[in-house]
Amino acid sequence: CWLRPDGSCDEDDTACEPQGTSAGEVACGDLCTRLIVCIAQLVQQCIDEPLLPSLLMAAVYPPGCGAGFVEHLDNPAGNDGRVLTAVYYVNAGWLPQHGGALRALTAGAE
């Protein structure tokens, strides 16, 4: 599901219908917006160039089912404007032995 910072969905994403009705969903949307703004501000401090966030990929995987992303390149051709990928796990009490750790590959090495 591709979300905009305002909580709306990308028109091309038919699999996502934002609910936003429960207190938890509203809080999650607020947290995502704050994360996007904070990341953009931190990047600008480091590279002195504005970062304009446009879409956020939101995914929820139920525990114990083995679901997740397969190995992929985020910006293989380098032409989609994406210069930063940030991953945020919100599992309370998560430990590495629970699985689901991020593995990043660069230039053919882990």
From TrEMBL:
Biological process (GO) annotations? cellular response to hypoxia
Name the source's superkingdom. Answer: Eukaryota
Signal peptide (UniProt feature, chain positions): none
Q: Name one GO molecular function term.
A: ferrous iron binding
| Alphabetical list of Gene3D superfamilies matching this protein | q2cbj1_9rhob like domain
RNA-binding in keyword set: no
Name the chain's protein: Prolyl 4-hydroxylase alpha subunit Fe(2+) 2OG dioxygenase domain-containing protein
Q: What is the lineage of its organism?
A: Eukaryota, Sar, Alveolata, Dinophyceae, Peridiniales
